[in-house]
Specification:
The chain is an alpha/beta fold. 37% of the residues lie in helices and 22% in strands. The structure holds 3-hydroxy-5-(hydroxymethyl)-2-methylisonicotinaldehyde (PXL).
């Protein structure tokens, strides 16, 4: 076995050439945080699916052979994270990956990338929703936005006006589905965005609020989950990691608005990566 003090994470996610999301976010963010990021590609897209057109090449048929070589090489990871998945079978493949590579120390992070603003993404089917409910049960930490939390728990979606009790209930439901800890992201509360953190074994949630610096953009969920993963792997508590991720996303949104970056281009996190660098 290799001996290394540097943390290593397997990131199962797509590569979208344009628009700043998934692997084009995860790799630079986790690298800046001193973590070795090892991608398992789920699909290759010309750009993310919130653009009016996109090229989409599903990688489902290749993934098992790709992963088999990692097993043959005896590779080990401190963490496994999953993001955008392109087919129901792919969700099955992630389940298999977790079963094959998980040890007692592995941190499994599932970002159930399914939709936003109350709607599922164009590529997301009902069958995928059902599979995702299974995958959530394997997570040490699950990080849905409000839309995703609603789809996963069969709760009617609302853009705003959530009470803390309702949010705690939704987080509890996700825990009943098997997730150990839950972070519900980007809940609108007046001029604030709130994140609901329900940690393993706790019966009360922490509500972490951040004053809004502008509108959410495509890819902000990927920036959030990547920073959160990096921070937890670097030893922060889930609440501290959530605070760092939320404040980094806020800074990115502010910078992107200042620079007039078109909404569809996501957030220009690149100029702010220095804030995440491990000293
Ligand atoms: O940011 C989430 C995401 C990831 N991957 C692809 C997407 C989206 C959101 O639109 O289209 C391909």
């Amino acid at each position: 076995m290799e001996i290394s003090t540097q943390k290593k994470i397997a990131v199962i996610n797509d590569i979208s050439g344009y628009g700043r999301c998934s692997l084009t976010v995860a790799i630079p963010v986790l690298s800046a945080m001193g973590i070795q990021c090892c991608p398992v590609p789920t699909a290759i897209l010309s750009n993310h699916t919130e653009f009016p057109v996109y090229f989409f090449d599903d990688y489902t048929d290749k993934m098992r052979s790709y992963i088999a070589k990692w097993k043959e090489l005896g590779l080990e990871f401190d963490s496994i994270s999953s993001g955008f998945l392109g087919s129901a079978e792919q969700i099955e493949i992630v389940l298999e990956f977790v079963e094959q590579f998980r040890t007692e120390r592995t941190l499994v992070l599932v970002d159930p990338v399914m939709g936003d603003h109350g709607k599922l993404y164009a590529t997301y089917t009902k069958e995928m929703c059902d599979e995702m409910k299974q995958l959530v049960g394997y997570a040490d930490v699950v990080t849905p936005n409000v839309t995703e939390a609603c789809f996963l728990t069969d709760t009617p979606y609302r853009d705003h006006g959530w009470s803390r009790k309702e949010l705690l209930n939704m987080a509890m439901m996700l825990r009943l589905m098997g997730a150990k800890s839950v972070v519900i992201t980007g809940v609108r509360e007046g001029n604030y965005y709130m994140n609901v953190v329900l940690e393993r074994g706790k019966s009360e949630a922490e509500f972490i609020r951040m004053k809004s610096a502008g509108n959410q953009r495509p890819g902000t969920g990927d920036v959030f989950s990547s920073v959160l993963a990096g921070a937890v792997l670097n030893g922060k508590t889930l609440c501290a990691a959530t605070r760092l991720a939320a404040s980094f996303v806020k800074d990115c949104i502010k910078k992107s608005d200042e620079l007039d970056i078109p909404h569809s281009n996501g957030v220009c996190f690149e100029m702010l990566l220095g804030k995440l660098m491990k000293k």
